[in-house]
Design brief:
The complex is a heterodimer of chains A (110) and B (120).
Chain A lengths: L3 E2 L5 E4 L4 E7 L7 E6 L6 E6 L3 E5 L2 E6 L4 E6 L8 E8 L5 E3 L3 E6 L1
Parallel strand pairs in A: 2-11
Antiparallel strand pairs in A: 1-3, 3-8, 4-5, 4-9, 6-7, 7-8, 9-10, 9-11
Chain B lengths: L3 E3 L3 E4 L5 E7 L5 E8 L3 E8 L6 E2 L6 E7 L2 E6 L8 E8 L15 E2 L3 E5 L1
């Protein structure tokens, strides 16, 4: 069974700080990795994807991938209260499916 | 922008009723998915479809069926609703052509707004 593990949180950070969200996965053959943001009562929204080892930056967000360690992370710089949400990590699960973690709840306090 | 729409945001049904949830995407995506999301359990795949009239079971298909008669439309059917099917149901689609898994642009899934189903 392919698994994606995330700490459920909540992860609490003050406004302006860096939030670091982590995810590990079990399938070494996974090729693509995604971060979704989900506000309470809403559906997941894709915010980042990464396919290659290393870092990928998009505005205040940086995704980091280490395939050798089977580890994906999401850094949010200058965290804002509007970033408070649940962040889902998803990993390609074969035949175009994604396997989702259960999410980490992030709370950014003003 | 990809747009995925679902027929209802909220639905209340009685035990034993047949329930239809519809999903439509407007970006000519090949793949469509149905998930349910429950607190503490995350997103669980019910069924997916990679082509018209094609369907594959996901992780929790029991009690559900699906229909994909047109490329843009994917329906989830609860043959006889039960209280343990009370959940948030999410539809998603991806461009994903067979053989292009792992190629940037083909695996990203885009979600509809969700249907919160309550079975009494």
């Amino acid at each position: 069974q392919k698994e994606v593990e995330q700490n459920s949180g909540p992860l609490s950070v003050p406004e302006g700080a860096i939030a670091s969200l982590n995810c590990t996965y079990s399938d070494r053959g996974s090729q693509s990795f995604f971060w979704y943001r989900q506000y309470s009562g809403k559906s997941p929204e894709l915010i980042m994807f990464i396919y290659s080892n290393g870092d990928k930056e998009d505005g205040r967000f940086t995704a980091q991938l280490n395939k050798a360690s089977q580890y994906v992370s999401l850094l949010i710089r200058d965290s804002q209260p509007s970033d408070s949400a649940t962040y889902l990590c998803a990993v390609s699960g074969g035949f175009q499916k994604l396997v989702f973690g259960t999410g980490t709840r992030l709370l950014v306090s003003p | 922008d990809v747009k995925v729409t679902q027929s209802s945001r909220y639905l209340v049904k009685r035990t034993g009723e047949k329930v239809f949830l519809e999903c439509v995407q407007d970006m000519d995506h090949e793949n469509m998915f149905w998930y349910r999301q429950d607190p503490g359990l995350g997103l669980r795949l019910i069924y997916f479809s990679y082509d018209v009239k094609m369907k594959e079971k996901g992780d929790i298909p029991e009690g559900y069926s699906v229909s994909r008669e047109k490329k843009e439309r994917f329906s989830l059917i609860l043959e006889s609703a039960s209280t343990n099917q009370t959940s948030m149901y999410l539809c998603a689609s991806s461009l994903g052509l067979i053989g292009l898994a792992g190629v940037p642009g083909y695996n990203e899934q885009f979600f509809g707004p969700g249907t919160r189903l309550t079975v009494l």
